[in-house]
């Protein structure tokens, strides 16, 4: 490979850090110590040693596996099976080999219902060699997964597999469902094996570092809200409820620490007997437990649509944690959306109804100033001394007046106020952003992902 194991180790650890997997210097040294007590020729032992010493959270494991396969590939291109044997199976111990299938699709059908992971990976390598190469110019070639999947079309094998597996048995029962699940899982394994081999070949041609930067999706807690896909948002839904519970608990703690209870006259007098009747140390009753009230102002414009989707999920979860939650959405005017997020309501249905029924748009261009003024005018009674105000948005107001006096008046009436901005801090005050002006009134925190939201909640204590 032209590199020593030390070079590979250093590059691998650096790639993990760049992909968002936290690896300390001490953990890197632990991995080196682990390598001294395993058989380096056993690739899976090497993977297990690295995983045990470097991976601390399950969410980081998929990215770790992708990078491990790039930095410690199972084979090099010259060691793959010849293209003419692509439809066959690997040699068995003793020099005998299973008779090759007549066509690659037939062999794939066999593997989907009973092949081992090793057989699937070797078959995928052979198929990438046969179908995945495309010439990009003189002496240059590119590798693609889609051409392999298009040539073999594994989804179209389902009918034939079911017909053969269920011969003489009734269709539509548990047996058919079991076969369908097995084939679906097999197709997913094949797709992953093809993608892994394509990445390996691109890394050989272009360099491991180059492909590593684009091959690994960031861990879920570091997916930026403004770039989150529909799939990311679906996965983030599971992260919302623990954060909502933690946020409610933190606000309760701040309330308890910020206010003493009423004077306990009896305990104060009793304590004063030790100082000749002089009440030197007053005693207070502990404040009663209180579930705080929350008002959420959420920018739901298209420019922050993914962030708005996440914050609405958060609002839905918060409604179960607070004694009273009122939520308001705005683009260039504001409307209360609390009615769409009652506990027990399906969150997808709630968002669909909100998009169709809520009055949050006049002209379609975000206007924070007008939205704040309309909020104060229509819903000023929503905030008070028991209220926590949470504003969610990027503070980009299309060069319209920001209505800072209105925001100051609102912030002065609430117990505490916070602003979460999904944009990187370096982009604040660029273009039509008035982030710093708003931040001078309400403390503003960069909140681009779940990790930063978790840190914000932790800092409330």
UniProtKB/TrEMBL annotation:
Residues 82-104 are annotated as: Disordered. InterPro entries: UCP010256 (IPR011195), Uncharacterised_CoxE (IPR008912), vWFA_dom_sf (IPR036465). This is Uncharacterized protein with von Willebrand factor type A (VWA) domain. It comes from Nonomuraea roseoviolacea subsp. carminata.
